Amino acid sequence: MSKVALNNESKIYVAGHGGMVGSAIVRCLKSRGFSNLVMRTHAELDLCNQAAVNTFFAQERPDAVVLAAAKVGGIYANNIYPAEFIFQNLLVECNVVHAAHMNDCQHLLFLGSSCIYPKLAEQPMTESALLTGTLESTNEPYAVAKIAGIKLCESYNRQYGRNYRSVMPTNLYGENDNFHPENSHVIPAMMRRFHEAKLNGDSEVIVWGTGTPMREFLYVDDMASASAHVLLLGDDVYRANTDAMLSHINVGTGVDCTIRELAETMQRVVGFSGRLVFDPTKPDGTPRKLMDVSRLRKLGWQYSTDLETGLRKTYEWFLENVEGLRQV
Questions:
Q1: Which residues make up the binding site for substrate (predicted)?
Q2: What is the pLDDT of residue 2?
Q3: 241 labeled binding residue
Q4: What pLDDT, on the 0 to 100 scale, is given for residue 235?
């Protein structure tokens, strides 16, 4: 098995390069001098098709893989499409990780989600909270798929000596996010709602839930920076802060806010002058989700973009692309 460390000449396959996180990781790797990047659109390579994935890996034989491809969505989408969320994510993970191993790809970074932790996990959530309690019901199928991805990587590491690492991001937002009015996460959905309310001259914006849940948000370019950092860490530093049975690493800011505070910040960023109305008949989801990021800090990385700055950058991008988004 190849044990060669990654360098600027290494061939890195970024799965999901067209998505918010994948595109940010591509930008980050290019800025660090990595030019031998392999990318395929969904039309070119269906990651749910095992035969196609096997053929791709046999032909390209990448030195490393960043597995950022996934079926994702907010509370509404997870409630309506639970079968697709668990089935498609399991297929992608199994196909890519196994094909990487079979073609002697030693390095892989799997991107998970903070929803892997129990609904009532002690806050802030440490990596050791995994599998210690009941998951949040609204996104349990997706969470189970992501947990399976972590264990898949750990199993190939234990049995075959692979260097497959996992990062668990908190709630992400930024350029290339999904701004669908129903299937998006809280920040893009809220941004679009506030923006359209401003254009329409509405007197109020209705926000789902009570506004009291606590959430942590990370700007996607910070997530890309953390992903590259973990992928490129030397084995000695990485293994000193992880072990075979607890290999995943939390990625976040370590700072959270209420949904009400998020809405007030969004209102300020977008420039909506009406009032906020909270709808308590809509689900709140998990009461609080804050990541313990002490392990990542020990590995030498911490975030650099605060929430309001990140929202302003995201809104600038949104305004440049809003005409296309109106057709979504």
A1: 193, 208, 215, 284
A2: 46
A3: no
A4: 84
